[in-house]
Design brief:
Radius of gyration: 20 Å
CATH architecture of one domain: 2-Layer Sandwich
Distance between the termini: 27 Å
Strand content: 5-15%
Structural class: alpha/beta
Oligomer: single chain
CATH topology of one domain: Nucleotidyltransferase, domain 5
Length: 283
């Protein structure tokens, strides 16, 4: 960040110290063939990824004072495929739960799905039409804890039924958070998910909407996952699915949540379009 003006998405010194051990250990396991440390600082690579997640710009439109597209995408692909992006996310999730005086492993989760339109470059075989919302694209299925932190995530074609999404999410939850014994879902998930949960030792409860309620009313137990989906949509990379690979879509959810949790852990905020512009000093 030396020699340039900071962006609102940049890592603070405190935030960088939270993730630096993971990145340093990764670099030690992946030494350069030529022996040099690399031309670009790892902190700047992470700054570029968080900038990309927040602004949603095209790769070739990354600002010139950040590392070039070729370097940033190189690390994005490596960390997506070897699990580093998820490792950083999981570390921060544990720290965020500890900060709220919770155990590292949750015992309850909330499941939901969200349909987003896909861009024109997205392969047709990985997209579909959501018959309920009549929207083409992909579906994101997420499982969060009661704090709204993501425990599991999958990205599939929008035509995939919520039963298949719920089943896949429960399988991932069982692997990554084996202490979970309770799950809440909405009425889009059917008895097949309840039965699959029972086989995994998870009591799945379908939260029915009160038919007398009008307009939007947060549902008890389920409102945290809806809040998380809404917060993720503040990251413009996630407003539409631009990725040719669903694995990249999953990685961007992890990077977006990484940015959210770093700000929670360091008790900082970022500006939004609602914030008034800073008053300039008269000259």
């Amino acid at each position: 960040m030396e020699g340039r003006e900071p962006y609102p998405s940049d890592l603070s010194d405190e935030a960088w110290e939270l993730v630096r051990p993971v990145i340093t250990a990764w670099k030690a396991r992946h030494p350069s063939v030529s022996g040099h440390e690399g031309q670009y600082a790892m902190r700047e690579i992470m700054n570029a990824l968080l900038y990309q997640a927040r602004t949603g710009c095209q790769w070739r439109y990354l600002p010139h004072d950040l590392p070039p597209m070729s370097a940033v995408y190189y690390y994005f692909g490596l960390w997506r495929d070897d699990g580093t992006a998820e490792t950083i996310h999981e570390l921060l999730r544990c720290l965020a739960r500890e900060m709220r005086r919770r155990r590292e492993d949750p015992t309850a989760v909330v499941l939901d799905s969200q349909t987003v339109r896909a861009s024109v470059n997205t392969p047709k075989e990985t997209t579909g039409l959501d018959p309920g919302k009549r929207s083409p694209g992909r579906k994101r299925g997420i499982a969060t804890d009661v704090l709204g932190l993501v425990i599991a995530v999958i990205v599939v074609a929008a035509s995939v039924h919520d039963n298949a999404i719920g089943t896949a999410l429960l399988d991932k939850v069982a692997r990554t958070a084996p202490a979970v014994t309770k799950a809440w879902v909405d009425a889009g998930f059917k008895e097949a998910v309840v039965a699959h949960g029972a086989r995994l030792g998870v009591d799945v409860e379908i939260v029915q909407r009160d038919p007398g309620m009008k307009g939007f009313t947060p549902e008890p137990k389920r409102w945290m996952v809806e809040q998380t989906l809404g917060t993720l949509m503040l990251h413009r990379r996630l407003v539409r699915d631009y990725e040719s690979r669903p694995a990249s879509s999953v990685a961007w959810i992890h990077w977006s949540m990484t940015g959210i949790m770093l700000r929670r852990l360091t008790r900082t905020t970022t500006t939004t379009w609602r914030d008034p512009p800073a008053q300039q000093e008269p000259r």
